[in-house]
Write a structure and sequence with these properties.
The chain contains four helices and no strands. It is mostly helical.
């Protein structure tokens, strides 16, 4: 999985998994922060992005 693809998927997933973060942080840097946070959660849980958010891979 490429880093760019993973970051894009994580941006989408971070909003689904942590919608309260939308109100707390805004702008491009916030998207990157949410993506990084989501990837840490996924890595810690030993699962992949698609399984973590229960959506099919696009």
């Amino acid at each position: 999985m490429s880093g760019a693809w993973q970051a894009n998927e994580a941006r989408d997933a971070a909003v689904v998994v942590h919608p309260e973060l939308i109100a707390a942080r805004k702008g491009p840097a916030a998207w990157d922060a949410r993506a990084e946070e989501f990837l840490r959660l996924v890595d810690a849980g030993g699962c992949d992005v698609a399984a973590a958010i229960r959506l099919p891979v696009r």
